[in-house]
Amino acid sequence: MNARDRIGSGPWRNVKGDVIASNVEELHTGNRLTKATAVTEKGEMVSGRGDSVNMHDILTGSMPDGRAAAGAQDTTCGNWTRSGEGSALVGHHDRVGLRDDEPARSSELVAPDARLRHGGAQGHRRRGGLLYCFAAN
């Protein structure tokens, strides 16, 4: 299922009350998600690129438009139920990547090969990845 179809119509605010996006289209094209606004449920800043510990990966499983990736490849670790082999598409909450291009600055999908992997020794392994939850009120 597409993420954009199950998260409501907005607006979305962080725990401090800052508006991240006013509607679904803005959430997936021009949201205000940055290192300063992508705070924890306690309002604390999450470390990113350049900090001693980089925790900027957001587990999305989605393409930049909030829709599921096409094809048979699993991009959500079994719809977020698998803890063994698998991988998930990621974005960066601080919008900083290894390159300076639009995908590297994405909060939804850094690049088609940017995945948090677990199990196995295949590909680039990352540890940690945050989930951003959407709650009513």
Description of the structure:
By secondary structure, the protein is mostly beta strands. The protein has one domain (1-137). The chain contains 2 helices and 5 strands. It has helices spanning 24-29, 77-80, and strands at residues 12-13, 19-21, 57-59, 86-92, 115-118. Strands 3-4-5 form a 3-stranded antiparallel β-sheet, with no helix packed on it. The chain is globular and about 35 Å long. Residues 118-127 have low confidence and may be disordered.
Question: What is the secondary structure topology, with strand pairs?
Answer:
Layout: E1 12-13, E2 19-21, H1 24-29, E3 57-59, H2 77-80, E4 86-92, E5 115-118
Antiparallel strand pairs: 1-2, 3-4, 4-5
